[in-house]
Amino acid sequence: MEWTREKRYRPYEQYSALELLELQAQANNSAYQLRYHIRPTSGLLNDPNGFSYFNGEWNVFYQSFPFGATHGLKSWMRTVSKDLVHWENRGLAIAPDTKFESHGAYSGSAHVVGDQLFLMYTGNHRTSDWTRVPYQVGAWLTQNGEVKKLSHPLIEQPTFASEHFRDPQLFEVDGKFYAVIGMQSQNNKRGEMVLYQANQVTGPWRFVGPIKTGIKDFGYMVECPNLVMVDGAPTLIFCPQGLSKNEFAYQNIYPNLVLQGESFDLATATLRRPGKLQNLDAGFDVYASQTFNAPDGLAYLISWVGLPDLTYPTDRENWANCLSQVKVLHQKDGQLYQSPVPAMKSLRGRSQVIDGQVTMVDDQAGQQIEFEVTIEPNQKGTLWLAADQILKRGLQVKFDTQNGKLILDRSKTDEPTAVEYGHTREIDLPANQAVKLRIFLDHSLAEIFVNDGAQVMTGRYFTRQSDQTVAFDRPTQVHGSLWQLNKM
Amino acid sequence: MEWTREKRYRPYEQYSALELLELQAQANNSAYQLRYHIRPTSGLLNDPNGFSYFNGEWNVFYQSFPFGATHGLKSWMRTVSKDLVHWENRGLAIAPDTKFESHGAYSGSAHVVGDQLFLMYTGNHRTSDWTRVPYQVGAWLTQNGEVKKLSHPLIEQPTFASEHFRDPQLFEVDGKFYAVIGMQSQNNKRGEMVLYQANQVTGPWRFVGPIKTGIKDFGYMVECPNLVMVDGAPTLIFCPQGLSKNEFAYQNIYPNLVLQGESFDLATATLRRPGKLQNLDAGFDVYASQTFNAPDGLAYLISWVGLPDLTYPTDRENWANCLSQVKVLHQKDGQLYQSPVPAMKSLRGRSQVIDGQVTMVDDQAGQQIEFEVTIEPNQKGTLWLAADQILKRGLQVKFDTQNGKLILDRSKTDEPTAVEYGHTREIDLPANQAVKLRIFLDHSLAEIFVNDGAQVMTGRYFTRQSDQTVAFDRPTQVHGSLWQLNKM
């Protein structure tokens, strides 16, 4: 089926319930389906939205097009959790049913105000001649899960922004509300992040200015900006599109970047003494990450595992993408660290310990596992995951702890994806040192935390589920543990 | 909204996807929603179907009308589990899309034949003048979850049966296939169970005869018959409608009964040396139970928690009912025992021990708990569950271990239901003996196993979720443990 514009923007009430039930069954029955990550109940999932802690529960919403693996008319779906690991699907939360979001309830964030959760997001409207008009809109989520939309937009498209003006991230400092918004300038079509401020969350909202970072050019657009405090350091996490590779080297179609400073001046929207641009994730598929400072003071992060403008093998099953696991952020000396949340250990089931000169780890480990392994210095070889028993097929982690290299390689999986952006992702490690890996597999998703989360490599991979081997290609000096994981 | 016949039988493709998404969100957000039982993703659930072990997974299908809390056009939804406790929703499995099931894919069973699962069930057809025509139909479920329906019915309505001829239970003995079917006779409109036999599961199916049990009259209909071996004893589990209370005393609108014998003669459809009729469940809401002999030789049982012709408070939220937990059946000296499956313990989280003269057990226990408690002899009082702190509101278990009485009482819950059939259910216990209770609460469902499952009392209850107390109304000599349970 071809996804014509007309089909992609058909109102949800014009799709049949039977079609939706069949799409849900198809997603439920997929061999590639995730078991302990947030995934679409049908159709396409993209950005996480409204990540927050409200009424005793963690909330993560996500962008959804429920009717196929394409970017059609978007709504928000809601999931909640007590522990950031076991997520419960609550279903459709924001349907695109007002004029302001007639062509999609696009991404946004959430912040507790009083005893309700305030949602601030982008309404995507198209005029009859298909001109896009972005509105930053608001809604209240009550404690019993009802959504009440504000009757008027919070912020209309300013003259200095093109039609690309979206993804507000709402936060509160000293009783005042702030929103960072991604945009493209009207005059020269360059990407920017801008800051708005309001005394009441429902407005009026006042333009503070473009966020000053010292970076000259972000390309033609910045999506999904976040400003969050990580161990006292103001941290920008954002997705520039069209960023010059002279500015920053990246391999994915669009990167998800991090920039930390010493302080942030809200009055002038200035990041003081910015450090160096860093890749948030050294893998294949992290994008549109959302982060917020929770009441416990920590910064939590969740990402879309998927990228704009790419196709995935599950497209043929009419569903696509998932969210990453939640990570807690720390920083030390300008280095960002991402860690699994403590409750991830609650998924652990049957375990086994490895120690010494190891080749085969487990030929029936399966693809719903955690593997925590330290590879000693001066080891070189390949760790195979989700592999067949003769190690001809699977996901490869190539390591060289002498020269300090780690490569994630999807080329030997059944269905390598996005090959035009390369089969491999490589990172540098400290030379002549052990490397500690904490690897999670979830049927078609690998998340690898390197050296306590100093780097993370996230990637979808697609290979047969009967390939259940975890093994080194040669005797390797290691120690660690492998766990079967329960579904969430 | 009134559920006219026309609305109830609208084809699924004429409901909108938006409506379904909203119904799913409504069910997901219900305060009464179950967390570790199979429940409808939207609308109404009734009979469990196709309970089986196939391709390394336990399968339970259920009757579904996804569009509201009414008995409309039925389909089969599928769930699977590795451990009989953690069920995973696989969604729509049998849509009512052939002539034979034009007015519902009704109840049936499943049996592994070769490398596929054979589904045998009732197709409900209505002619243009609304005459019901029941067909016993077949379908293959492949290992990858595809359903392929047979082009012709397995058994057409025989002349001796009225339009009420349904719920085939398929099993295999010595390479031959048998089906027990519930029906109403054409001539005198009385309920019967009949036996069919086939050498190939796809037919031809041959009528063996009515099942002879020694019971003179089952009322006007028998639904959901099962014949299963429990520790060597042939056991009939079935639901007579209109059974005389002289034949068997029962309080629910329709009972779910058990009848065991010493042997069963398949050639003549005769249960030899039948014992006494027993209530399968001494509570309020068990009906349409389905059981089968698994490859491990044991008999497992799962029930609809809900009854025909009753309404429930969740009707206003457009969803209704759930399935019970799975029970393993045993028998000793003609007494049936029902036990939770071993993996139920895997749900256990935080625990506390009680021992001695106890009044308050926990005023923040909540309603997702297991409470295993032995009440010593000569104790009389009330155990309050899901109660407020002053024990004025909640679900009551009244016990008298001197005279040997146990009463489950819903009268003090917020929304007593089916009150025309009484607020209480009572059972006799051995006098002057301790009683051992294993109680499970799941937000609006209580399952109480009495004395190692010699009796079970199952009941929905509806009271506010903020009532979290478990307590005795006076100091009571007890010992036991209380666990918070994880969601499945």
UniProtKB/TrEMBL annotation, chains A, B:
InterPro entries: ConA-like_dom_sf, GH32_Enzymes, Glyco_hydro_32, Glyco_hydro_32_AS, Glyco_hydro_32_C, Glyco_hydro_32_N, Glyco_hydro_beta-prop_sf, Suc6P_hydrolase. SUPFAM superfamilies: Arabinanase/levansucrase/invertase, Concanavalin A-like lectins/glucanases. CDD domains: GH32_ScrB-like (cd18623). It is found in: Cytoplasm. The keyword Amino-acid biosynthesis does not apply. Pathway: Glycan biosynthesis; sucrose metabolism. It catalyses: Hydrolysis of terminal non-reducing beta-D-fructofuranoside residues in beta-D-fructofuranosides. Keywords: Carbohydrate metabolism, Cytoplasm, Glycosidase, Hydrolase. It comes from the Bacteria. Signal peptide: none annotated. Enables the bacterium to metabolize sucrose as a sole carbon source. Belongs to the glycosyl hydrolase 32 family. This is Sucrose-6-phosphate hydrolase.
